[in-house]
Amino acid sequence: MKRIIFILMTLLLIFAIFGCNSEDTNTNTSSTQSELDASTTDDNDEKEQYIPFNYTKNGVDEFYTLFQETMHDYDMKQFLKEKCYNVTPQEVSEATDAKIFKFFDNSASFVLIDNEIYEICICLGGYGFINAVPCDFDGDGSLELLVASSWGSGLHRSEISVFDLTDKSFEIYYSTQDLSSAGNYIELVVQSKENNDGTVTYELYSVDYESALVGDNFTLAYKIIELHGIIENVDGVPTFKQTTNE
Question: What pTM was estimated for this model as a whole?
Fold first, then answer.
């Protein structure tokens, strides 16, 4: 009898110990999960502030084949197809036949138009091509591309240029180089806004880029900080007008 009582008391003691531990474990797990859920919610809220750029693999095979066949001044070892993406903004695709491609490991950016490839901006360090909108500042009825890009190492700058889809060249009209030399690094995107009178305002926004891994850490999304300025049409010439004190 004493043996049976001893065994029963031992079992009760074991049950009590493991029962308490199990309760504590469940409580701790619940608490940890709540903290994780809260953290995840905060991360998602932060992510939702970022606007993704358009990038796909559509047309990359055809572009890269033409790139190899025609761009003989480039070292193909530095331009790998797996690093190449179609980054044509939807607004550009809807209005023109231009397609824009970018190598995400070195930021080299090109436009494909009339089955020929051209550089669309300076791509020496920085992010290269950022985004573009169709425009027609000279009023000739043929669309150009108003392009936001960035380049530079040490002395970084964002630039706004116009790529002429007719003569296949680009000209820079605004640069933040003077500002960035003082350590005030400004990155820009350009957006078009149609006014009630039918005219279009081209707005420049200072932004914060989010880097993400697509082979390398180059920008894929942005968060608007504030309106930096506008590009006005002055006698057919794109002209920057400051709207902030940066």
Answer: 0.77
